[in-house]
Amino acid sequence: MEEKQEQQEIFAMPRIGDAAPAFKAVTTQGEINFPADYSGSWVILFSHPADFTPVCTSEFMTFASMEDKFEEANCKLVGLSVDGLYSHIAWLRTIKEKIEYKGMKDIEVTFPLIEDISMEVAKKYGMIQPGEATTKAVRAVFFIDPQGIVRTIIYYPLSLGRNFDELHRVLIALQTADEFGVATPADWRPGDDVIVPPAGSCGTANDRMDSKDEEMTCYDWFFCTKKLDKETVLKAVLKK
After folding, report:
1. Which of 12, 44, 66, 239 is deepest in the core (most CB within 10 A)?
2. Count of CB atoms situated within 10 Å of the CB of 103
3. Domain identity same for 191 and 98
4. Is position 50 within any domain?
């Protein structure tokens, strides 16, 4: 029974739409109270398996080089692994002083990296997957909105590095959906048409099909799109 309860604890994870589990932690940038310290901002909370590993190094360099791009979209970055604080500091110093990769060099990681030796935070977020490893966090990514709600979860195995263009695209798409009350189709990027939600009590299927709105195209009663230009999207979701 105890073993079963432990496995349930390890696999427990918040779901999309849940409040992000709260915790306090020591990081490379001081103590944080999460998610309260980030109220009003989007946050990407992500885990990596271990310091001083090659895939993680490539990811941290990429995140750090894109930090301004995420910040422009009102999004903070928070990393986590089950290593200790001094290991974190030594690894990040090594990245800055010694690693040059894909044109990135002298990269300084200024966002917080959580010390989680006890695996308390990793377990709260289901970042420990025993099928992969019992002592390493998989590459989890949690998008948390300004109200502290989990909006998107993406998991990668230990061997697979993340696609950072996709992480940024997801952030902008979530903000666009919120701002304009729309949905985004497959492979959507700013400037592409967006999906108009199906008619509710204020309209009917025929209303949508017969609409004179020149900006809207209906392929059938359940599938209508409208134009939303790139400038309008970026003006709404990026900081002035």
Report:
1. 44
2. 6
3. no
4. yes
My answer on whether 211 and 93 are in the same domain is no
169 belongs to a structural domain: no
What's the half-sphere exposure (Cβ side, CA atoms, 13 Å) at 200? 2
**Pseudo-torsion of CA 99, 102, 104, 108, nearest 10°?**
-60
pLDDT at 137: 75
Percent of the chain with pLDDT over 90: 72
Alpha-carbon gap, residue 29 to 159, rounded angstroms:
28
- Label each residue of 121-134 as H, E or C: HHHHCCCECCCCCC
Nearest to 148 by CA among 32, 7, 19, 3: 19
- Which residue numbers are catalytic? 56
Angle in degrees, 0-180, between the axes of helices 230-237 and 164-180, rounded to the nearest 10: 90
pTM for this one? 0.89
Handedness of CA 118, 120, 125, 129 (dihedral sign): positive
| Residue 162 pLDDT grade (very low, low, confident, very high; cuts 50, 70, 90) | very high
One domain for residues 191 and 148: no
**pLDDT tens per residue, range 25-60:** 999 999 999 999 999 999 999 999 899 999 999 999
Regarding whether 208 and 150 lie in a shared domain, the answer is no
What per-residue confidence (pLDDT) applies to 1?
41
The answer to the question of residue 171 being in a domain is no
Domain limits at 220? 181-237
Q: Positive or negative, the Cα torsion across 122, 13, 150, 165?
A: positive
Highest mean pLDDT among 98-107, 125-134, 213-222: 98-107
Question: Residue 47 carries which side chain, given as an amino acid letter?
Answer: S
